[in-house]
Structure to design on (426 residues):
């Protein structure tokens, strides 16, 4: 469920017409709905009721401070994968004892920052990281609270680029070695083993890979407990999918996901952490764009809009589907014409949709790419020297620009010509 809907023939975000936003901030821009964020968080929180579970929002899905803050105010923690994300989570007011640090390539500086901030846990992904972290922590007279991320060798049945729990993926420690590594870890001076972590992939549309992975984690935890290792926390990662094409996709409901957690891990007496990203923010955002022109090609019609692959890379990167909503609602019975919706970037991959049935569009019309709240703005680039697009947050009848559109001066500010070149005249 989301709060993007048509009213009087026009697309609204909560009580604000998208057309009014476009007039104020210009296109393209991302727009997030507070009510949708809140609803998604509450549905998951309620589904997990009765379990000792903390929701650590995976910041990489959408790292805008206002988005993190909205979730933090509801009690969410954060799952971060870089210094930048850790700084964002802290700046948004997430308490350090609700922050988990994941990732296969944390630098020394990042590990030190995590230690200094006293975060809940660092999810360690290799023997080498374990050694390095132990030394750093011991050097500070500290013990780092860690979980070992295990790789359960489970196929998440999702796009190859976002599957992370197979043994050929770079993530985690093979689950068959996890027992040994955890025992080793518990003997290191700078390490306090708190638990086990797992994350098998993103945009999962079935539950059975979760069940399989969680069962493996269960077996491991029972074995560790039998050996006298105090495992008190299990981190289950994120990955639950969202419907991008509501007519054809039916991902599992949070309630059913929670039931799997209850069934596999509910009786172990461990604190649980879940790290949803997409599930919380995916349907809470749209990318609004204006049609620049309609071009009749040799065999098809191209709708060229002012958003491009650098703003929303998912179609080019993952062959992802995004619903396209005309801001002016098509009346029932309107003829739909097959068109390719493309951006201005100089790549054929800069295509949002191929042969999509849409009502006739003309220069100046506004369209919205739905379900763009996750892995949209955070994956944007300035390719083709296009400016990053602004982000707007709506709450009921009010809105705020929560990231401004930079200027071209901003874009050039970090670059300079070396002294040996002639400086061009202004
Ligand atoms: C990306 C990631 C998540 C979030 O994944 P979603 O599919 O957005 O829920 C959670 N945990 C880790 C370790 C991740 O890398």
């Amino acid at each position: 469920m989301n709060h993007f809907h048509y009213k009087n023939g026009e697309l609204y975000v909560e009580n604000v017409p998208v057309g009014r936003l476009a007039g104020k901030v210009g296109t393209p821009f991302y727009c997030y709905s507070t009510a949708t964020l809140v609803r998604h968080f509450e549905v998951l929180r309620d589904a997990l009721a009765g379990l000792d579970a903390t929701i650590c929002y995976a910041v990489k899905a959408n790292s805008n401070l206002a988005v993190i803050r909205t979730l933090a105010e509801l009690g969410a923690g954060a799952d971060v994968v870089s210094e930048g994300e850790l700084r964002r989570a802290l700046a948004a007011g997430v308490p350090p004892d609700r922050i988990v640090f994941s990732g296969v390539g944390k630098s020394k500086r990042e590990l030190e920052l995590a230690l200094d901030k006293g975060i809940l846990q660092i999810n360690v992904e290799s023997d080498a990281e374990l050694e390095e972290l132990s030394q750093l922590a011991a050097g500070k007279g500290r013990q780092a609270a860690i979980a070992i991320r295990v790789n359960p060798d489970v196929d998440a049945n999702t796009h190859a680029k976002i599957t992370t729990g197979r043994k050929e993926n770079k993530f985690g420690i093979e689950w068959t070695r996890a027992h040994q590594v955890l025992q080793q870890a518990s003997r290191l001076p700078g390490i306090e083993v708190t638990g086990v972590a797992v994350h098998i992939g993103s945009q999962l549309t079935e539950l059975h890979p979760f069940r399989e992975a969680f069962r493996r984690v269960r077996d491991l935890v029972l074995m560790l407990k039998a050996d006298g290792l105090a495992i008190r926390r299990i981190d289950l990662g994120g990955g639950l999918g969202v419907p991008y094409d509501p007519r054809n996709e039916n991902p599992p409901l949070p309630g059913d996901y929670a039931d799997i957690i209850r069934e596999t891990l509910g009786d172990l007496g461990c604190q649980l952490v879940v790290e949803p990203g997409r599930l919380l923010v995916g349907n809470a955002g749209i990318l609004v764009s204006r049609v620049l022109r309609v071009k009749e090609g040799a065999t098809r019609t191209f709708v060229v809009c002012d958003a491009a692959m650098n703003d929303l890379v998912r179609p080019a990167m993952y062959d992802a589907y995004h619903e396209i909503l005309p801001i002016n609602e098509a009346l029932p019975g309107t003829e739909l014409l097959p068109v390719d919706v493309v951006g201005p970037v100089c790549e054929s991959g800069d295509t949002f949709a191929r042969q999509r049935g849409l009502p006739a569009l003309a220069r100046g019309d506004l369209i919205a790419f739905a379900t763009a709240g996750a892995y949209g703005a955070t994956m944007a680039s300035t390719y083709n020297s296009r400016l990053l697009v602004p982000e707007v947050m709506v709450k009921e009848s009010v809105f705020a620009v929560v990231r401004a559109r930079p200027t071209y001066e901003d874009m050039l500010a970090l670059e300079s010509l070396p002294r040996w070149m002639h400086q061009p005249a202004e």
Remarks:
- The chain has two domains: 4-31+282-413, 33-278.
- The chain has a mean pLDDT of 96.
